[in-house]
Amino acid sequence: MLYLLFTAILLLAAFSGIGSISEKLFKIRNEFISLRILISMTVLATAFTAFSFFGPINIYVEVPTLFLGTAAFFYFKDYLKYWDLVVSYKHFFLAGLLIILFAGSFYPFILDHFGYYVPTIKWISEFGLVKGISNLDLLLGQMSVWHIFQAGFSSFSDIFLRMNAILLIVYLIYSIERKSWIHLIFIPVLFFFAQSPSPDLPVIIFSLMILNEIFAANKNRALLFVLSTFVFAIKPTMIWVPIFAFLYILLELKGSIKALIPGFLLLIVFVIKNLWTFGYPVFPVQIGSMGLSWMPNKEILRISSEIAIQKTYDMQYSAEEISKFTFWDYVKNWFSIKGLKSKIHILFIATLIIFTVFCFLKKKRIYTSLLVSILIKSFVVLLFSAQYRFFIDVFFVSAFILFYEKISRKTAVIFFTTLSLTAFLFLSFPTVLKTLVPSFRLGNFMLGFQKSQIIKPSHFKLERYKTYQIGNLRFNVAEGYPFSFDTPLPAISPQFLQEDYEAGIFPQKISDDIKDGFQWIKMSDQQKLQLKKILEELKQK
Questions:
Q1: How far apart are CA 498 and CA 488, in angstroms?
Q2: CA distances from 211 to 48, 341, 367, 396 (A)
Q3: Which of 159, 194, 351, 445 is spaced 20 to 30 Å from 5 by Cα?
């Protein structure tokens, strides 16, 4: 907690300063600290993404950024706004701050933390964006803009990767500044994303802030659209945000095309980034092939698509069984999955129905625009991979629209306190959660409260690996663990080695320099036998 407090003070100051510079540079009128930080994050993430094509985003980028931001923080006297906030809401803000720091200090337990989030940040901080890296590990082809942004602060100021906890503090500030108290109710629900660099938390928070700004009649067209495209760049399943912002600008503000240019420029950077790392414009969609030599192998993509469909049904059916489903089988089995997920699916459809009726009853164009945006997003998710994690944001949006005009500060504080205590009960004593919700598998990876987290956030360290070589690629694999979160690069997880074996291909360096990227080759019989022996050896660990 104490380490996180230091991190929060340093980063909030630096982000405020960078935000002030950005506002002056782009002539943005804004009076809120929280929105200034959101502008700063968007600018930095875009700049880091552009720089990462040419080299790593490491301490040589981080230190100048922190210095520039902190210097601007004092030059523009941003500290006065923080002081006014603390003076006006002293006990409330400080209590909220301590609660968030405590939530962010627990051990990470989301599996993607180890299999995708941390490895992505390691690659960016050590090498930058690597061409065709999806050939090494398909998940790395995503290279979320949020992880590129976090890599820029992972060498010194945020070595435990708790940027999400910092963002929760920004969200708390936004709720206070805007006096939009319903946001307080969402914060404790997001505590479960605070220990990992999960992109789910920023896209939920940013989308709710943008939504609130639109309903508060913010007329800054360019700002709203570029922030909404930033959300999409972090996670493309959030496609409803730029669609809604576009419709709002077009129909409500009668905006000109010039206001959309910054957002479209950000989208261009996003597409180029995906083409560079994955070979297609949007990960993991296999549309828009440009015939790039570093595109992933078709068989690997087929296996990935099958797994995505299986995850839709919580891995309770094989890909072959699912392929034989009729339309009604798809629907029936999706609603009848064993465990918690079937209940979430039912709640999702019920929420969509209630949300649709509510928007129709409002009979206002802005509600219709939001409804259309949400329905487009829901259709896309249901079409490609109807996993609950891809539509969890719909619950937040629906709750906001249904109740944001009805929640008083007192009611919000009561909910915030109650939900925070409940979240801490589950985080500190995960056996309670596992007992109440046996089908919540992540509960098995929660370790509860540790005294050491009062000083610094709880974190894992494995550092056990073996080194192998096939062709010109010398790679590392974690021993006795399925993920390579702290394995020296280049690292490959056993799952992807198995998929390569089944596909009969293997990644190779394009040149002696890893920065030049990876492409796949068809394995010789000798190489396939070599990989088989590696897999057998790993199974024995």
A1: 20
A2: 26, 27, 11, 11
A3: 445
Closest by Cα among 461, 488, 466, 464 to 477: 466
- Residue by residue, pLDDT tens for the chain (541 residues) are 899 999 999 999 999 999 999 999 998 989 899 999 999 999 999 999 999 999 999 999 999 999 999 999 999 999 999 999 988 998 899 999 999 999 999 999 888 888 899 999 999 999 999 999 999 999 999 999 999 999 999 999 999 999 999 999 999 999 999 999 999 999 999 999 999 999 999 999 999 999 999 999 898 989 999 999 999 999 999 999 999 999 999 888 876 778 899 999 999 999 999 999 999 999 988 888 888 999 999 999 988 888 888 888 888 888 888 888 888 888 888 888 887 888 888 999 999 999 999 998 988 999 999 999 999 999 888 877 777 778 889 999 999 999 987 899 999 999 999 999 999 998 888 888 777 777 666 666 778 888 889 999 988 888 889 999 999 999 999 988 888 888 999 999 999 999 999 999 999 999 989 989 999 999 999 999 999 999 999 887 6
Element (H, E) at 476: strand 473-478
Give the list of residues 6+ apart from residue 524 with CB closer than 8 angstroms, or none: none
Evaluate the omega torsion of the peptide bond into residue 284 and state whether it is cis, within 30 degrees of 0: yes
| Greatest CA separation for the chain | 72
Q: What is the pTM for the complete model shown?
A: 0.94
Structure tokens at 512: 């002696």
CA distance 424 to 448: 9
Task: With beta carbons less than 8 A apart as the criterion, state whether 235 and 46 touch.
Answer: no
| Torsion angles phi and psi, residue 364, rounded to 5 | -125, 145
CB atoms under 10 Å from CB of 387, counted, come to 19
